[in-house]
From TrEMBL:
Annotated SUPFAM superfamilies: Oxidoreductase molybdopterin-binding domain
Taxonomic placement: Bacteria, Pseudomonadati, Nitrospinota/Tectimicrobiota group, Nitrospinota, Nitrospinia
Residues forming coiled coils: none
Signal peptide, first to last residue: none
Protein's recorded name: Molybdopterin-dependent oxidoreductase
CDD domains, per the entry: SO_family_Moco
Stretches assigned to the Oxidoreductase molybdopterin-binding domain: 67-207
């Protein structure tokens, strides 16, 4: 793994690693301090919040101002041999790849984009999970959380995303780091990731605790309304969504 900004990486990484080693939960705590607008209709205009924008709708469970990269760090800990803290620049030291995949929302619409980032294998090489680590829990800067079996995150086309459509992720779409799991509904594709924990138990996710959605979130057979097809209904088979006008991965 090579890094572009070694000095900055060392300073920030050492700091975050020290915190992760003592089990500090400073990042979720900081997120919890964000104003809670979940049941407030008077959300400030400058907050990241649900918006039906052309081409790709924006969904965010807990409206907030977005991530200040000067205060952001990624803690990777739990059942691993080498817990680490990573800065934004560190993430670009991983081997990156790109793919075009469709995000299918549980609200029935879908949209596709070109996503660029790194695979789970890159992170595993960095932290070396212990044999009993079977699940992975994610926390985000807006107090959202998700959980996956580790084996699901190792499937092809699961991607930790840094760039979208040739540009850095926007704050609305998950800056600085989000997950794309194309065979899961959109709510499983957690944004603004701040902490990753390897565990031996599955746990629950945000929407199974606060809403009607399952922990699993696998896309089911049914009808999709792709935004790039005028929202005209099209049948889907379940799993990753491909429409007749989508290019299939080689």
């Amino acid at each position: 793994m090579s890094f572009r900004l070694l000095k900055k990486k060392f300073d920030r990484r050492t700091f975050l690693k020290a915190l992760s080693l003592v089990g500090a939960a400073f990042i979720p705590g900081k997120a919890a301090a964000i104003g809670d607008y979940r049941n407030d209709k008077n959300i400030p205009e400058n907050y990241v919040q649900n918006r039906d924008t052309p081409g790709f709708h924006i969904r965010s469970a807990n409206p907030f101002l977005g991530v200040n990269i000067d205060e952001w760090g990624l803690s990777v800990s739990g059942l691993v041999e080498k817990p680490v803290g990573l800065g934004y620049e560190d993430l670009f030291g991983f081997k990156t790849t790109s793919q075009i995949s469709r995000l299918k929302c549980v609200e029935c619409w879908s949209a596709k984009a070109e996503w660029e980032g790194f695979r789970m294998e890159e992170l595993l090489k960095e932290v070396n999970p212990k044999p009993e680590a079977k699940y992975v829990k994610f926390d985000s800067a807006d107090s959202y959380y998700e959980v996956f079996p580790l084996e699901e995150l190792l499937r092809p086309r699961v991607l930790f995303v840094l760039r979208m459509n040739g540009a850095p992720l926007s704050r609305e779409h998950g800056y600085p780091l989000r997950l794309i799991v194309p065979f899961k509904y959109g709510y499983k594709n957690i944004k603004y990731i701040t902490r990753i924990q390897f565990t031996d138990s599955p746990g629950r996710n945000y929407w199974s605790n606060y809403g009607p959605y399952s922990v699993d979130g696998t896309i089911q057979p049914g009808i999709d309304h792709p935004l790039d097809y005028g929202k005209k209904p099209l049948p889907i088979n379940g799993g990753e969504v491909f429409h007749p006008f989508d290019k299939r991965p080689s």
